[in-house]
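Task card 7
Instruction: Convert sequence to structure tokens.
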Amino acid sequence: MPLFQQSVVNKYLNDVDKTELQNAWQIFTAHFHNAAMQENIRNLKEEEYQEGFVRDLFVTVLGYTLNPQPGYNFVLEKKSVTDATKSDGAILLNNNVIAVIELKDTGTADLDKISNQAFGYKHKHKNCTYVITANFEKLRFYINDATDFEEFNLFTLSQQRFALLYLCLQKQNLLADIPLQVKQQSVAEEENVTKQLY
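Output:
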């Protein structure tokens, strides 16, 4: 089930810098819509492309700074607070984990199989709101719970769907909790529609 009401998404997209969005789309398509690149990605194992995927999407397209760069807000292999388990990646705000990322290669076609693992990591970071799972081709984005998510096929993503991915995952947007605000306003709008019907 979708996370958001389209009317609420549209309102937030109006505030997105169109030039930055267009530039990100150009960089994104040059990489993820390149047929030869897609074929190469499909042939890579998780550990072979994990860091590359983070750089290609989260750093180059979405604007994060990967550790060990100064002022980093993205780390790989983030150890849980409570035990020795590690998520493949995490997005930080003021040194607190606000998003965990669990990655597999394209051989893992069913992303449902990794959501439990990813949410296990989420629950070990008390300030964590967002969960991202991906198999290098498809990416799922969750807010707080596993019942609803947005899924994006990176290899066939339309410009309209890319705008939603950008709204959810671009550094400034995520660090400002924009996705959570969009979800909360979507829920409120749904409740208003239901009240009007009854």
